[in-house]
Specification:
heterodimer, A: about 550 residues, mainly alpha, Rossmann fold, Serine Threonine Protein Phosphatase 5, Tetratricopeptide repeat, globular, B: about 230 residues, five-stranded mixed sheet, two-stranded antiparallel ribbon, 5 helices, 9 strands, about 50% helix
């Protein structure tokens, strides 16, 4: 017998396992195999929808899911939704079961990757070895993933280095994680150096991608472009390289080139929903309404069973069609959306606002007004807490109906929450352009942005001059006025913590700082200052406990 | 009128279909064998032979699909840094039961700290094919080993059979610059050799590419297949 020292003593008995496959016979075979491995709790699902229901109801340790599940959700969509909704956490194991070479097709094309793949057909021994080796690997990766979720990147790096020194079987995975953590932490130069070292050991695509991302984040756009293009020259199926290349083009102010690159990626990986959305938005911005329409239509079609489906896919499709004078069809798209989404105020609001836009274009002011009035009513029910895409459609409807004050008010609110977000600001520019007020709009953007920066700088200045108590007071008021602005909220947390650093931590200020930090993470989980702020918070919190 | 499909595409899609059928066949047989073992009936050894043939067919189809993709320039490498020991264990576990049913023992000799950058699926395809052959020709043992040799990473499959026939010996001196051609007159074994050579050559690092070697002797005194990667 082959020795399997490391995996021999893993106990699977108490694991809860879910088998997802559309073939009854295959589910039966799998369950028999699992039972013969001593596993007692085994459940199964015949399709993606049933799988999601079961995953929502109970925590499973191991999910064995077929990629092809017939009509409805695919295995990939089950994985995405389960992770997105938190049904599987960092300790859960998801193994994707595939028939033959679909593997190549799906690799590297997605937001979430499974822990491992299993190729049909397989014998019991292969299944056992796979489950055990993934369980073992997961054990050492688990702590790293937990540290990443907590944004404790220094701790994650320490674990990575300890493991790398021991050369575990999943060494490549640990090295991959280390590179990602360095990039997340903002240590771009260090990441570049790390990837260079890895690349002396072999020509791994993930390391070349990581090296390119480091260049991109360091602002070396030409180097980054060269690296991504080199990867694609050798293998034109590396989807992630297209995404990074498009991002680089956007950063260096070439939206048309970015669009071309994403179009190639979308052709290779036609089922990837999020890319269709990005591409649609980019094409719309580039005034290529044909491509915008195609992409948003693809987003609508492929989003049918996805957790990433939003009303924006439909309203943006409708708007692209309006630009091509397909007005009647555009209304039909919105009608389809109102049947597909539940009767909730936020979806009704968005669709009514979009309808109003279309009716204005159709020269039907009465209908436009009625739809807008409805949208307005829903907006009041929701008390102003709107996603920016929805708020901007509503604002545009107001502007087109001639209510400039209401429209610009809403837009000022959106700028207040997003004054440093180029994507949102660009969308606002499009709204102003399409409503015939580009110059006035540019001035509103400039004034509002400057207002916020002044507001922020005054607070920062107070803190810099050591007037921390005043700075706290100042930022608390600012944060109440701009609850969705991450920089204001981050600074509110920071001055509170600076105060506690000097005067010792106390429960009340800690809890305030914590809720500001939570807001920042909710607004933008990838905000560069989060790790620094969190490590400051952790230190203070531990002092408070020990005192 | 629907556009005309090329014959090679029809062939490829039929291959996929056949592979799926084989998969179902394999799993059904797995159930039958399990039932048979419980009841202790005599034929279950014979069923292993059936399973062996299904596996052989399956590997042939995978190889054919890979060659088809290579022909259409669609075969792309997925190189990563892999534990040699884990790779050999994964191969062994797939063949172990079948080999054991003939009293053949599989041994692995490999340092747990040995890693190399390679396309795992392609390399496993090559070794699977060699072990399938060994099943027919070895007497009592198959030895899988991996090591670093002369700047190359090498995986070896050795057996204690009578060795490869002279016509199949290939690059016996293990020369990186060996330029001998593959002899196709030996039929399916020639195809396996062709595939192995292709996979070896696809692995390139610092201007060096991989190669294979087939000779007789080695630690078990039978056939020795080696694949060298830069």
């Amino acid at each position: 017998m082959v020795k399997q020292e490391a995996t021999a003593n893993i106990n699977l008995k108490m694991k809860k396992v879910l088998v997802v496959d559309d073939f009854f016979n295959f589910r039966l075979t799998m369950k028999n195999m699992l039972r013969s491995l001593g596993i007692m709790y085994i459940d199964d699902a015949a399709n993606g929808e049933e799988a999601i229901k079961k995953l929502a109801a109970r925590k499973f340790d191991i999910i064995l899911c077929d990629y092809n599940l017939g009509p409805g959700k695919s295995g990939q969509q089950v994985l995405e939704e389960a992770k997105y909704r938190g049904y599987i956490n960092y300790a859960g194991i998801f193994i994707m079961v595939t028939a033959e070479n679909t593997l190549e097709m799906i690799m590297g094309a997605m937001e979430y990757e499974p822990d491992d793949y299993l190729m049909k057909p397989f014998a019991k021994e292969v299944l056992e070895k796979k489950i055990k080796s993934v369980t073992l690997k997961k054990e050492n990766v688990r702590d790293i993933e937990k540290a990443i979720i907590d944004s404790d990147f220094d701790h994650a790096l320490r674990i990575c280095d300890e493991l790398i020194a021991q050369s575990p079987a999943n060494l490549a995975e640990i090295m991959k994680l280390k590179g990602e953590v360095l990039l997340k932490k903002g240590a771009y130069a260090e990441a570049a150096e790390f990837y260079d070292k890895v690349l002396t050991m072999g020509n791994m695509t993930w390391a070349r991608l990581g090296r390119g991302r480091a260049d991109l984040l360091l602002g070396r756009y030409e180097d980054a472009k060269n690296r991504f293009e080199e990867i694609l020259a050798q293998n034109n199926k590396v989807i992630a390289a297209y995404d990074e290349l498009a991002r680089t083009y956007l950063k260096s102010g070439q939206p048309e080139e970015a669009q071309q690159v994403l179009m190639k990626a979308a052709a290779i990986s036609p089922r990837a929903l999020l890319r269709h959305k990005t591409l649609g938005g980019l094409a719309y911005r580039n005034e290529d309404y044909t491509t915008a329409e195609t992409s948003f239509r693809a987003a609508v079609v492929h989003g049918k069973h996805s957790c990433f489906k939003t009303t924006s896919d439909y309203t943006q499709l409708a708007k692209s069609m309006v630009m091509r004078d397909a007005l009647q069809e555009s209304l039909q798209v919105l009608g389809q959306a109102s049947r597909e989404f539940p009767e909730s105020p936020d979806t009704r609001l968005h669709l009514s606002a979009a309808e109003s836009l279309v009716y204005t274009k159709m020269n039907k002011p009465a209908e436009a007004k009625r739809a807008l009035a409805q949208a307005h009513k829903y907006a009041q029910d929701l008390a102003g807490d709107l996603p920016s895409a929805v708020a901007l459609d509503l604002a545009q409807a107001h502007l087109l109906a001639g209510d400039v004050e209401k429209g610009t008010d809403i837009i000022r609110g959106v700028i207040g929450a997003n004054h440093d977000n180029d994507d949102v600001l660009n969308t606002i520019r499009i709204v102003f352009k399409e409503t015939g007020m580009p110059e006035k709009g540019e001035k509103i953007i400039k004034d509002t942005t400057e207002d916020i920066m002044r507001l922020n700088n005054e607070g920062v200045d107070l803190a810099r001059r050591g007037k921390l108590a005043e700075a706290i007071d100042y930022f608390e008021k600012a944060a109440a006025r701009l609850p969705e602005n991450k920089i204001i909220n981050a600074n509110a947390a920071q001055v509170l913590m600076l105060f506690m650093k000097q005067n010792g931590p106390d429960e009340e200020r800690l809890s305030k700082a914590s809720s500001y930090l939570e807001r920042v993470r909710r607004i933008d989980g990838a905000y560069a200052d989060i790790p620094m702020l969190l490590s400051m918070y952790r230190e203070l919190a531990s002092r408070e406990v020990s005192s | 009128m629907t556009p005309k499909m090329s014959f090679s595409d029809i062939l490829a899609s039929t291959l996929h279909d056949t592979k799926n059928s084989l998969g179902i066949l394999f799993n059904n047989l797995e159930n039958i064998i399990a039932g048979c073992r419980e009841k202790n009936c005599a034929q279950y050894q014979d069923f292993y032979l059936l399973q062996y043939e299904i596996k052989r067919l399956n590997h042939s189809l995978i190889r054919l699909l890979s060659l088809y993709k290579a022909e259409k320039s669609q075969l792309t490498m997925n190189v990563d840094f892999h534990s040699a020991r884990e790779l050999l264990e994964d191969v062994a576990v797939q063949h172990e039961i079948l080999l054991a049913s003939r009293g053949i023992q599989v041994d692995i000799d490999c340092d747990g700290g040995l890693f190399h950058a390679m396309d795992r699926n392609l390399i496993m395809g090559v070794i699977d094919n060699i072990i399938n052959n060994a099943f027919r020709y070895t007497k009592s043992a198959v030895r899988l080993s991996a090591a670093v040799d002369g700047g190359y990473f090498v995986i070896r499959v050795e057996d204690d059979g009578d060795g490869y026939p002279p016509s199949m010996l290939f690059n016996e001196q293990q020369d990186p610059n060996f330029s001998g051609n593959v002899d196709f007159s030996t039929g399916s074994t020639g195809l396996g050799l062709y595939f192995s050579t292709m996979v070896a050559q696809m692995h390139v690092n610092r201007d060096q590419s991989g190669f294979i070697s087939i000779y007789n002797g080695g630690t078990l005194g039978g056939g020795v297949f080696s694949i060298y990667l830069p």
